[in-house]
Amino acid sequence: MVSLLERQFPYRDVSRLVAADRRSPDPAYQAHRWWARRPPALLRALLLAATLPADSTQEDLWRAYASPEPHLRDTTVVDPFLGGGTTVVEAARLGARARGLDVDPLAILINQHQLMPPDPADVLSAGRQLVDHLAATIGHLWAAPAAADNGWTALHYFSVAAVTCPRCHHQGPLYRSLVLARSVGHAGSVVRDAAVTAFCPDCLALHYCEEAATEIRCCGTTRRLDDATFRGARYFCPACGHRSSHEALKSGASPRILLAVEETPAVGADTARRPRRRIRPATDADRDLVHGPATEVTAAMGRATGTPIRTAANDNRPVNFGITTIGELHTPRQLAYLHTALAWVATANLDTAVARALRLVVSSTITSNNKLCGYARDYGRLAPLFSIRAFSLPWLTVELNPLNPIGGRGTLAAALSRIARSCKDVARRHIVADDGGTSPVTVTWTRRRESHSVACADATTEDDDRPAPDARDRADICITDPPYFDFIPYDTLSQIYRAWLPDQQHLSGSPLLPHGAEPVTEFGTRLGRALAHATSVCKDNALLAFTYKGSDIAWDAVGLALDHAKLSVTALWPVLADPHMGHHTHEGNCEYDIVVVTRPMTAFEPGTPPDDLDVAHWTAALRPALRVSAADEANMRSAIRIAAPRWATPANSKSR
Fold first, then answer.
1. For 7, how many CA atoms within 13 A lie in the half-sphere containing its CB?
2. 406: number of Cβ within 10 Å
3. What's the CA gap between 508 and 503, in Å, rounded?
4. DSSP 362-392
5. How many alpha carbons lie under 13 Å from residue 233 in its C-beta half-sphere?
6. Taking the CA of residue 301 as centre, how many other CA atoms within 13 Å lie in the half-sphere pointing to its CB?
7. Gap between the Cα atoms of 116 and 113, Å rounded
8. Which helix (H) or strand (E) holds 547?
9. Alpha-carbon 297 to chain mean position
10. What average pLDDT does this structure show over 576-605?
C-alpha cells in the first residue's frame, strides 16, 4: 500500500504543532533526561501518515491525530535507534505494538518505564518510604544546628573555586561577578527582600543591595558588582597577572569556598509573613556539614565512585577540569545521598515496575546533584548539568539539598512528582483547529502495556545472534531517528547515570559515530547495516522513514547507507524538530529535520523527483509563520542532493 506520507505530508502544519508544543512538555517524556528526543507531534503525525492510504485527505489525518482511538491497533512499529523513545511511545498511544533497540542500556531502562509504567499511586507510596528512610539516615547532613530551629530549611549552597596560580602559586577565589542572585521581577522567578545579593571576595560577607546598585564597599575597598577574576575563559591572577585556563588550574578539582546558603521556609511556616526564599551567610556549622560526611561515606561507596570518566574524541571535559572519576564528580554529601537511596531501592521489596521507576527517580536527580551545577541568578533556580548538551563548569557552583520538601529544581520530591505524572496516559497537546490555527487540548490515551519489547543491542551489527522473525511476526513499518554524523556523543553523557545503575553500566556495542581515516564511509556503512537489518525484520516492501540533519558530508554518509541497505527514496519532507527559544536562536542553528521516506528497491521502479522537491518551494510554504535559517536551507539542499538520484515513484510499483 502506498501511504499518505509518500503522497503528501502537511509539514508546515506539523511544524506549527511542534512549535506550539514546545512550551508544554509531555509528562511521559519527563521521567528522566535524554538528549535530542524528537517532538511527539512529529512522530504521531509520521506514524499516522505512514499507515494511512495515499488517497486519504489531510482532514483524515488531522481527525485521527486529534482522536484518542487506537488507530494502529493491528500494527507493529519498530525503531532500531530507540534513544528517548518518542517513536515507540507515540506508537503505543496509537494502539500499536512497539519494538525497539538501543546500544545504551539507560535508554532501555527509560523506555521500559515509558512503555510499561506502574500505577502512579504505588510509585508515590514507595517514594514516601524512600524519603522517610533518607531523612532518618542522612537527613542530618543538611541540617546545620544554627538553622534547624529557626523555621528555615536549606536548599542551595553557593560556592566558588579556590584556585592556585600555576606561575606564582597564589591561591584565591575564581569568580566572574560578585552577584549571587538578583530579584528583578522576571515571570516565575523567586521573590526576595533584597533585589541583589552580592559577596565580598576578601571576607566573604554578604551585601543586600537595591536593584540599581553597581558596587559594594567592604574591607575598606569599593568594588564593582561586575568585578571578576575570570573573564574570556581565563583566570586572571590578582597577584602576578598570569592568565590560566580551567585545564591549567584543574578548577573542577579545586577546593571550594562556601559563600552562602539559600533557604526555604520550613513546612508549615507562616509563608505569608516571610519571603519565599532567603540567602544567608554560610556559617562554620554549614562548612562542617559540607566537608564532614566524607569519612562516614567513603567506606560505604560502591564501585561506581571509582569508575573512570570516559571523554569524547573531540571534547576532553570534565577530565580537563580535573574530574577524572564518577566519584570526583560529586561532593561527599551527594555521594551519601545517591548511594543510600539506590541501596534502599535495591533491597526494598518492591514491584518490578515500581522499583524501576524509583531507580529512575534517583538517577534523574544526578543531573542536579553534582559539582557542575550552576545557578540561574535572575530566576533563583539551580542550573543542572546538561543545561547544554555537554559538560560545562560554572563559576558559581550550587550544591542542592535533595531532601528539601517544598522547593527547588532537582530535589527528590520534585523528581517523584515528575515520574508519577509520567505514569499517567494524559498530556496537554496541540491540534490543528478548524480555522487552520493550533488549539491546545488535553488528551487521554490507553497504552497496551503488555505487547511491547525493547532490547539493548547494536543495530549496526550485521552478523549478530538475533533470530529473524517469521513472516507473521514482522513489523509493518520502521520509523527511527538515527544518530547524526555531526552529533554529540551522548554515550559519554549517559555514563554519569549508568555508573550508578549496576546492570546498566555497559553499552551493548560501539555507538554509531564517524571513525577512522574514512569517517563518511565508516558511518555510512554502519548506518546502512542498521537500515538493512530493520528492513529484514519488517514485512516485504515495508515503509522505512527516518529523520536526519547535518552537513554535506553527513548527507553523503546517508547516501552510502541507503545504497548499502538497497533502499530508494519515495518522499522527502522538512519538519521543524528542534525549535529553540530566546537567546538560543540565531542564524547558525539548524532547527529542521528532514524526513527521509524509503522503500526497498524491490518495491518501486526508479522515478523522477517531483517538481516541488525544492528548497525555495519548502521555505515559501513555511514562511513567514515559521522561521527558516540559512543553516536550515543548507541542510535541505544537502538532503535533496542525495535523495534525487535515489528516487523511486510510488506510481511505478513493481507489484503492478
1. 15
2. 16
3. 12
4. HHHGGGGSSTT-EEETTTTEEE-TTSSSS--
5. 3
6. 24
7. 5
8. strand 538-548
9. 30
10. 79
Mean pLDDT within 68-76: 93
User: What does the pLDDT read at residue 583?
Assistant: 35
The span from the CA of 553 to the CA of 438, in Å, is 37
Q: Which residues of 291-319 are buried (b: 16+ CB within 10 A; e: fewer)?
A: eebeeebeeebeebbebebebbeeeebbb
What does the alpha-carbon distance between residue 383 and residue 366 come to, in Å, rounded to a whole number?
A: 13
Average of pLDDT values for 28-39? 92
Model pLDDT for residues 246-287, shown as the tens digit of each residue: 999 999 999 999 999 999 987 655 544 445 789 999 999 999
Q: How crowded is residue 191: how many other Cβ atoms within 10 Å of its Cβ? A: 10
Task: Return the SS3 of 446.
Answer: coil
End-to-end CA distance of the chain: 11
Rounded CA gap, 74 and 332, in Å? 52
CB 400 within 8 A of CB 119: no
Per the model's pLDDT, the better-predicted residue between 200 and 580 turns out to be 200
Do residues 490 and 136 make contact, with C-beta atoms less than 8 angstroms apart? no
Cell readout for 213 is 546598585
3 - beta bridge partners? 53
Single-letter amino acid code for the residue at 81: F
State yes or no: pLDDT of 471 exceeds 90.
Answer: no
**Grid coordinates 519532507 are at which residue?**
573
* CA–CA–CA angle 260, 263, 266 (5° rounding): 155
DSSP letters for 340-354? HHHHHHHHS---HHH
**Residue pair 397/176 in contact by the 8 Å Cβ criterion:** no
Percent helix, strand, coil in the chain, to 5, is 35, 25, 40
Assess contact for 455 and 81: CB atoms under 8 A: no
Quick one: CA torsion of 337, 341, 343, 345, rounded to 10 degrees? -170
Neighbours of 446 (CB within 10 A): 12
Q: What is the pairing mode between strands 426-432 and 171-174? A: unpaired
Q: What would the grid cell of residue 68 be?
A: 484518542
CA distance 98 to 475: 9
Residue corresponding to grid cell 559563600:
259
CA atoms within 13 A on the CB side of 653: 10
What average pLDDT does the segment 360-374 reach?
96
Phi, psi values for residue 520, rounded to 5°: -65, -45
Judged against a pLDDT cut of 60, whether residue 466 lies above it is answered with no
621: nearest Cα among 569, 574, 583 = 574
Q: Are 455 and 108 in contact (CB under 8 A)?
A: yes
Q: Are 552 and 631 contacting, i.e. CB atoms less than 8 angstroms apart?
A: no
Task: State how far the Cα of 402 lies from the Cα of 411, in Å rounded to an integer.
Answer: 4
